């Protein structure tokens, strides 16, 4: 039974997806993105070192298919894709021809490295990056997808995942998600423009408003967990020009300095966001992690992953 109120916390979650997360806009293109995705193999070990040396606990919400060894194992494990009304959203069987060695789709070695690093939690980003709010997706699709992840995580890492990040932040089918063993999920910031993330609604206006939030030093999105949800607070934008990056860092410092008991400042990004100008962007990540680590060392905040929040908050609430 919980005996004391949790103090201020920082949660970091990473949406680890490689090409699974962008297969539909890329379709048959590879040349322009191969280097960026290849550089993830440099970024992930570097991130693990940055987290480990600062004792930061992080959730890696990985697409389940990343743990497959090759296309044959993927074909054996993957459930039937949803019958999206927009067929281009489904995984294209020809992806295996575009990437025959699977380097842009599979990363079992990197997931093993994550699993072996203290404080790092392997959550899930679904098995094949299923987009749950796109028309055509059913509860059976979601169940089959999450069951495939659970089976693979049990086989590879000894336990099914308990934390979920919804692909493209399309929160849906919560009852199904909970029935599949998920005990903590990342929600969106409360403003309306953080919920315009379907293909049909993610237009220029909501994207612009999200950017303005990110560089406004006085915005605060840290909140206490709500049942089995921890809300995102900020997407880390390592690609900003220098002036906007300074404002972005000021926003982070303000969030960290204003945290109160039970509140969570939840920072997130994708490893492939570091695939361009990798060293420079890793340096920016290090700058932010030093801000967090300094607060942790002074006992002002605690670094937790999403799985830790499950333990600290107790059993999830009802719908």
Structure description:
There is one protein chain. The protein is an alpha/beta fold and 319 residues long. 40% of the residues lie in helices and 12% in strands. It has helices at residues 23-26, 31-38, 40-53, 71-77, 95-98, 108-116, 139-157, 174-179, 204-214, 242-258, 278-297, 306-313, and strands at residues 9-16, 58-62, 120-124, 163-164, 184-187, 229-231, 234-235, 264-269, 302-304. The strands form two sheets. Strands 1, 2, 3, 7, 8 and 9 form a six-stranded parallel beta sheet that branches. Strands 4-5-6 form a three-stranded parallel beta sheet, covered by helices on one side. Helix 10 links the parallel strand 7 (234-235) and strand 8 (264-269). Helix 3 (40-53) runs parallel beside helix 11 and helix 10 (242-258) packs parallel to helix 11 (278-297). It is globular and about 50 Å long.
What layout of secondary structure does this protein have?
Blueprint: E1 9-16, H1 23-26, H2 31-38, H3 40-53, E2 58-62, H4 71-77, H5 95-98, H6 108-116, E3 120-124, H7 139-157, E4 163-164, H8 174-179, E5 184-187, H9 204-214, E6 229-231, E7 234-235, H10 242-258, E8 264-269, H11 278-297, E9 302-304, H12 306-313
Note the overall shape: globular
Find the structural class using helix and strand composition.
alpha/beta
Low-confidence stretches: none
Oligomeric status of the shown chains? single chain
Q: Indicate the percent of residues in helices.
A: 25-40%
Question: How confident is the prediction overall: mean pLDDT?
Answer: 92
Radius of gyration: 19 Å
From the 3D structure, determine the CATH topology: TIM Barrel
Per CATH, the superfamily is Glycoside hydrolase/deacetylase
Q: Please count the beta strands (DSSP E, at least 2 residues each).
A: 9
Report the top-level CATH class.
Alpha Beta
Number of structural domains: 1
**Main sheet specs:** 6 strands, parallel
Strand content: 5-15%
Name given to the CATH architecture: Alpha-Beta Barrel
């Amino acid at each position: 039974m919980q005996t004391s109120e949790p103090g201020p916390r920082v949660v970091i979650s990473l949406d680890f997806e490689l090409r699974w997360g962008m297969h539909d806009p890329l379709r048959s293109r590879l040349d322009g993105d191969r280097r960026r995705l290849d550089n993830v193999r440099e970024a992930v070990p570097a991130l693990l070192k940055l987290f480990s040396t600062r004792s930061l606990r992080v959730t890696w919400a990985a697409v389940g298919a990343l743990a497959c060894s090759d296309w044959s194992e993927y074909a054996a494990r993957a459930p039937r894709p949803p019958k999206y009304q927009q067929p281009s959203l489904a995984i294209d069987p020809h992806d295996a021809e575009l990437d025959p060695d699977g380097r842009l789709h599979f990363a079992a070695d990197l997931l093993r490295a994550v699993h072996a690093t203290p404080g790092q939690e392997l959550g899930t980003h679904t098995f094949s990056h299923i987009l749950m709010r796109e028309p055509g997706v059913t509860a059976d699709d979601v169940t089959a997808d999450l069951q495939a992840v659970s089976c693979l995580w049990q086989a590879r890492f000894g336990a099914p995942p308990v934390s979920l990040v919804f692909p493209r932040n399309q929160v849906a089918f919560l009852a199904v998600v909970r029935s599949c063993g998920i005990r903590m999920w990342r929600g969106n910031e409360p403003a309306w423009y953080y919920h315009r993330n379907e293909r049909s609604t993610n237009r220029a206006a909501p994207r612009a408003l999200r950017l303005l939030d990110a560089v406004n030093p006085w915005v605060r999105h840290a909140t206490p967990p709500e049942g089995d949800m921890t809300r995102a607070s900020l997407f880390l934008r390592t690609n900003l020009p220098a002036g906007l990056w300074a404002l972005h860092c000021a926003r982070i410092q303000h969030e960290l300095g204003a945290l109160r008991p039970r509140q969570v400042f939840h920072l997130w990004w994708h490893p492939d966001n570091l695939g361009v100008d990798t060293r420079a962007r890793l340096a920016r990540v290090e700058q932010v992690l030093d801000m967090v680590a300094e607060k942790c060392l002074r006992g002002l905040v605690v670094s937790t992953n999403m799985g830790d929040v499950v333990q600290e908050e107790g059993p999830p609430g009802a719908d």
